[in-house]
Structure prediction request, 233 residues.
Amino acid sequence: MTARPERLNANIAWLFMVGSACFVLGSVPAYLNAVGGWVDGTTYVIGSIFFTSASYAQLVQAQSPEMTHVDEVTQHAPAPVRLLGWLPHDRNWLAAATQFPGTLFFNISTIAALTHNATAAESDRYVWRPDLFGSVLFLVASAFAVLAVSPRFLSLRPRSFPWRIAWLNMLGSVLFMASAIASYVVPSTDELLGAHLAVAGTFWGAVCFLAGAALMLPAWRHALPAQAAAASP
Prediction:
């Protein structure tokens, strides 16, 4: 199987942007009030599917050297991709490999959330737990991504596109984790632990992911001259 490196990167960016936009839209109270709970829940499901598609494509990109070691010419030439890989010493691959199963947990949680009349115990088991597991994996993936672009975890490199993308994703992961914790349904009251935080965490976390995905497009263009210079004798 082959792919054009530039097109694959653009597809990843747009898939993440659409998925993030769905989560942003789904967490807007006015949208929920306008379309109802079932459509709002479906919006989250669609967003999670886009997230999963983008995450798997990014995993393929991370384990296919021909997809990133390119220049102005070769970025448009079809090159082979690896659908399966094992690169545990590559932090970019570790980030992608950890994030992908996290998106699968979000698929489970968003689909389960469409179930009506669930008890508190059922909601915590089938919606909250997968949401929490997915958020944990997103946090771990974000940590790998930060370490992949920085010599130290707290190094400041604000001029670097990869650094900005990594930290936007880290902030988004932290906010998703806060939302997941706040979404726990307290059995004694049948209410969320923190309804406002659950909504706000999802909204602003998705905004961070959307911004990070949008930066993937200029980051690719900015990286090409540096890669060409490094490849030249």
Notes: The CA atoms of residues 161 and 219 lie 5 Å apart. The helical segments are 5-26, 29-35, 37-62, 91-112, 120-149, 161-182, 195-231. The longest helix spans residues 195-231. The mean pLDDT is 94.
